Amino acid sequence: MALPMQLRYNYRIYPDPAERAALARVFGCARVVFNDGLRARQAAQAAGLPYIKDADLQKQVITAAKRTEKRAWLAEVSSVALIQSLNDLHSAYRHFFASATGRRKGPRIAPPRFKSKRDNRQSIRLTANGFSLRDNGRLYIAKIGDLAVRWSRPLPAAPSSVTITKDAAERYWASFVVQTQDRPLPELDTATGIDLGLSHFAVLADGTKISSPRFLRRAERKLKRLQKDLSRKRKGSNNRAKARIKVARAHAVVVDRRRNWHHEESTRIIRDNQAVYVEDLAVKALARTRLAKSVHDAGWSAFVAMLEYKARKNGRTFAKVSRFAPTSQVCSVCGVKDGPKPLRIREWMCAACGSVHDRDVNAARNILALGRRERLNACGGNVRPERVPAAPCETGTHLGDRKHS
Ligand SMILES: [Zn+2]
What we know:
The chain contains 9 helices and 14 strands. The chain has helices at 17-46, 54-66, 79-100, 214-232, 238-272, 283-286, 292-298, 300-313, 359-379; strands spanning 3-14, 122-127, 131-133, 139-141, 145-150, 159-166, 172-182, 191-195, 202-204, 209-210, 275-279, 317-321, 347-349, 356-358.
């Protein structure tokens, strides 16, 4: 069975000075159109007038605006980018309305806000009629030029859209959306449980312990040092501005490396197991405790989300087991609950059967057993649909699941 999916592929691009200037112009125009549209809708609302329809707003802030002296320069950039920017405003409104009326679940969504020239990230989105891929590997964008791309991996199919972004570290990226038909991997009879521990990043039921690699820890240490440097610089000084860019760059390196590593590990786990069970840590609840920092640093929720969508993509089973199960207290051999174990206890012996357990491996084995049991129960009548990510999105080697707005 092939599942159609939308995947995102990200690549670093290297615009030359002229192209950077052209990009700056189109970023600015897209922002102006977005803000003009927002202002027009807010003014209509304040005057008690009806909500301006999408098509009418486009005529007003793009087509008609280009003919005015004040906005004539909008004609100098790709109209595709301007239309997409306005589409972003339309969907921001739709999400806000859906959230306000309760049609959309989850946290409340705020009304659209004005974009600032000083935003760290700037982007434009182009549909297929606004860009093309050259035979020489360059990315052609109307009224910008042929951009050099570092193709860190091949695109699996023709992209339907691209988002060009300049990030806080002043790097440029092209993020392509590609429709693919995914073929599930051959079926296996293996299953694993994963304990997201504190002494290791993750521990598997077969005893495998995954720790964050040295290159990532090194990047994290460098980031901490630069953050400390920044905090020592005088507010408003030139040195502070320079230090801030250094921090942004180091932060981007940490984020990229961590994501690449999460991709490698999650791909391997999904490839090697037909079923994967993790403890539902409800990271949000945990984030309020003193464990918060290590939880966020380790990026567990991002890692678990990768496992989830890769499982779906490859026809694997993925489930979160109840976080109320005392996975570190129950003996995975005989099933007897041995009593609470403070975090510092890494190894213990079951009083009932004498098995010696590594705390985390035992927890991973219990998660596997719980996952299998819940699955069996589910198949025995009380079948619940598998939870799947709303917008499955594969990220490239460099950028992540960024929301492009
Ligand atoms: Zn036991």
